[in-house]
User: Fold this.
Amino acid sequence: MSDTVVEFDRRMLEALICPRSQQTLRYDAEKQELISKSAGLAYPIRNGIPVMLIDEARVLD
Assistant:
């Protein structure tokens, strides 16, 4: 398997919204997450693909 890191395409942010709050998301490049402040959740990005499932999201501190 390759060690190549797939980058998230920031243009996807224009089309993605939080499935819980229906609000816009902020990209955290360091943690590879999409942040929904209104829902208090962080959705992971795996291999360049956002996982937009509430069950997979991390609750923000």
Remarks:
- The longest strand covers residues 41-46.
- The beta strands are 26-28, 33-36, 41-46, 49-50, 58-59.
- The radius of gyration is 11 Å.
